[in-house]
Amino acid sequence: MTKSYRLPAGWHKAFYTLWLGSFITGMGYSMTMPFISLFIADLGHYSKLQINLYSGLAFAMTFIAQAIVSPYWGSLADRKGRKLMCMRASGVMALTITLTGFAPNAIYIIVMRFIQGAFSGYINNATALIAGETPHQRSGWVMSQMMTAGTAGNLVGPLLGGLLSSFFGNIFGGAWGYRIPFFITGFLMLLTFLGTTFLVHEDFTPISRAKMKPMKEIMHDLPNLKLIIIMFVTTMLVQSATMSIDPIVSLYVKSMMPNSKNVAFVAGVVAATPGLGTLVAASKIGHKMDDVGPLHVLRIGLIIGAVLFVPMALTKSPWILAGLRFLLGIASAGMLPAAQTVLTLNTPPQSFGRIFSYNQSFQAVGSVLGALMGSTISGLSNYATVFWTTGCTLLINFILVVVFAWGISYRHKK
């Protein structure tokens, strides 16, 4: 191993701590989704419209707050360090999730979710922190692994949340079945805060506000500003494509098997397969990214993703749909991690916090746009149209990357 490939002392301990913290954070965000509407229904005499509205707001508020506040936290991260931002995010999340367990009404939950989103950023800052501590020759693999952490958490979260709420609901009955999972997740986030505080070291020198470059100057000094902007747009469009399917998966599956009693189980499998595909492929694709360059992998991932949505729109079998979404998960392992790797390789280390925070804002906007796109199109047309539209979105993204990143390539020579 040459000198340029050597990892700093304590790197592995920091990496494993941040990976586990990102996993728990992803799990904490997603574990309440299977029962949030049921929890809200138990907190008052709400109509069906109110329950749907409050549930949608509880989901969207986190991402809306992220989009608004992330640039501020990114600026603070570049002055104070990414580790402090990870501590801030995990500490506040531990508090807000625990307090949500004591919710007396739906508005309280929505407010807590907004605060949680406003102080979020653990995964984003953990990724920026470990990117700054990692030699560029390994950036692709590291970005893939950090995405795997959040993906695995999002995959496990709904399953664990559903199991815990059912288990404690049978024991305690009423809303307490939904409250206890919040307390458990809050405790896990407290452990994440402690682990990040005592096990992660960041080689960072604080910068005063006066000496920190303004964002306009950073953008002007970037070697390829157009490429950075295209990566922001890529993050938004890929996230939008991912989220557009989530609101309609169970309904789409139900339309394929209207007389079946196993719709919930099959829909759960179909919903989980992309995350499983990403988990299986992330490490190998990360290594390939370091060999051939992230832009090459990104282009392949986008075109494969766009093509896969065609048979998804045409199939009448939920199991074929699950298989295609598994393949989509493999393609996804070459999309967002590749975009983040391009950002890493084209951003000065002292600006990582702000660049990655803007990227998080675009990702949050993509989550909201995707959910709105999926639910709106399916309501105005049909479920298949959502898949056609999403495939076109990735195709447009592919064209943008080809046009604006033409001739740019990264290949790490060993």
Automatic annotation (TrEMBL):
Gene3D superfamilies: MFS general substrate transporter like domains (1.20.1250.20). PROSITE patterns: MFS. It is found in: Cell membrane. Keywords: Cell membrane, Membrane, Transmembrane, Transmembrane helix, Transport. The chain crosses the membrane at residues 20-41, 53-73, 93-115, 155-176, 182-201, 222-243, 263-283, 295-314, 320-339, 386-408. One of its GO terms (molecular function) is transmembrane transporter activity. Residues 14-409 form the Major facilitator superfamily (MFS) profile domain. Coiled coil: none annotated. It is a multi-pass membrane protein. The keyword Manganese does not apply. One of its GO terms (cellular component) is plasma membrane. InterPro entries: MFS, MFS_dom, MFS_trans_sf. It comes from the Bacteria. The keyword Membrane applies. This is Transport protein. It comes from Lactobacillus acetotolerans. The lineage of its organism: Bacteria, Bacillati, Bacillota, Bacilli, Lactobacillales.
